[in-house]
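WARN  no MSA supplied for this record, continuing single-sequence
INFO  ligand: 1,3-dihydroxyacetonephosphate
INFO  echoing inputs
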Amino acid sequence: MRSKIVAGNWKMNKNLNETKALLEELSGKLPKTEAEVIVAPTFVNLADTARTLESSEIKVAAQNMHFAKSGAYTGEISADMLLNINVDTVIIGHSERRAYFGETDDLLAKKVKAALENNMRVIFCFGEELEERKAGNHFKVVESQLKNGLFDLPADAWQHIVLAYEPVWAIGTGETASPEQAQEMHAFIRKTITEAYNTSIADEVSILYGGSVKPSNANEIFSKPDVDGGLIGGAALKADDFVAIIEAI
Ligand code: 13P
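INFO  complex generated
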């Protein structure tokens, strides 16, 4: 059975004081759930968060990492640095990294490989832009992002992969993909993985939906059979909203 996951991507929000306050509120209000709950604060607050949540049910992820072991890469963070502060999950390929920081499929494939070589778990993000959906190219775009980012991996690597389908037009816009659109794409993703690998990998991989998930729509989105949870941006910054989304799953 694939696992249910609700992950909060805090992006470039919350200073250290705000991070501590949100973690405290979240820990106090965390509902009983079978789903895995993850938060991904900014790098500068990651070590503190990992320490705070050491004996908590809530897990911690990084928002990015570099593929190299170490070296002259000013401003970058390695897998070893993350593991050393007990962070073993990393988000790779977020559309904001692709769009604003020029991260290409090739670079992302290198990052995924480096993370897996270090026994980390990857939350791999992908999704089409509005123009691509309007032109009817969304399936093609998603297929090529998956192929270029992940399909060189050996079959056994897939147990360390979580997918996050995040249509770019739904991120931070208030506009969500309809539950039907999410289901349609998630089913397509499983079919694509079945063709590239096999049914058991396609059935076992958790596929999260991301893009303007909020308490008012989480229930309906999560009720779709191929949606295994969410990667939450804005609504993860308020404990009550994030908790309501966790309850929805
Ligand atoms: P929003 O929930 O703010 O639309 O962001 C989604 C996202 O990008 C999560 O990674």
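The chain has eleven helices and eight strands.
INFO  checksum written, moving to next record
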